Amino acid sequence: MTAPSPGLSSASLPFVLYDALLSVLSPVAWAYAAWDARRAPDRAQEWSERLGQALPCVPASGLWLHGASVGEARLAGLLARSVHAARPEVAVSVSCVTRTGRRALPAPPDVQAAFFAPLDVRRRVRPVLRAVAPAALALIETELWPGLVREAAASRSRLAVVNARLAPERMRHYRRLRALYRPLLRAMDRIGAGSAGDAERLLALGARPASLTVTGNLKYDLPAPGHDPLALRRRFGLAPGRPVLVAGSTGEGEDAPVLDAFRALRAERPEAFLVLAPRHPSRAARAAELAVERGLRPHALSSAHDAAAGEADVLVVDGMGELARLYGMASVAFVGGSLVPVGGHNVLEPAAAGVPVLFGPYTAHAEEPAQALLAAGAARRVADGEALAAAWAALLHDPAACQAMGAAGRRVLDDNRGALGRTTALLLDLLP
Question: Fewest C-beta atoms under 10 Å: which of 50, 90, 230, 248?
Fold first, then answer.
């Protein structure tokens, strides 16, 4: 085991300021937790985990994988299964930050424990670290939490960041906080960068060259969900030849332009059907209201009558875990978080289903795979809702182009697989 980096000293001014800020905010968080648990009793367990009170029970000297939300939770599951296959005796624990991510975390037997990460206050982090006692803590993508990293280093856990990425558009922000991020990166025993560009940005921010390896993007290695397009269409009462547009992971402020684009398309293709999947299911009811305001008939996925969806115009996805499968019945897909400045979501999911991919101008969080799909002719970028309607119409008129784009997307995934093996080897190298 390595000694904690001297750069992680609590006397360091950035960490002093960080801890001071959290000390001020802690009573607010405690009060909110108590109020939220009374308002929604099902959240009492959540807050017990976030406050470091409900502790996981796992064998020591294992691996702790931590991510933020749904995307990282899926990667945690992928890595947990791979590590378990190579070293079944290693206890793997997984955590996340968001509620949607918590629902997406893997469960036993793939992992020994799944839980909400503690608030990044050191006295909340310590009991969780004592309970898990990991030989190694691996943070997924950009989850550099100062309290968690410092406490893990102090406990002699080895540290890694896997599938590490830094969006070019965010580098100005990261550089402003370089005094905070640099010691955290330098404390890492290993960093597996998602791309060569990510590696360059990590080095510029202070990562040690000796710790850094380009392992590739794990999202290329995610298994495509098994699906039968015709069976999916039968499930929702959709005729085999009916045009189906899937708009996945739409962000706040994006449902309206997507629905406007769909309504414009239906002036030319009245039989078209839309699957609308807001990134956060809590926004599904509002998405349905927006559809009604535009004269469209919505149908909720949670309804017990799936076959009745075909009598509506829009299937609103109001739950988790279905989107990747639903891409399989799409004629054309649109990936959200890209018409609004969110940064885009997983553009590889529809490509894995062999579906043409559309996305907007904002893809900073998925830039490398977005560029790979564009270069291969598997995707097209649209500027706004009006351009989205035009692209949908053009592709529905050209089935041969759709087929070629879908095949090109699958080739991109096949050509870029391999990050899972490299990342698994990196993690195993950290374990005793």
Answer: 230
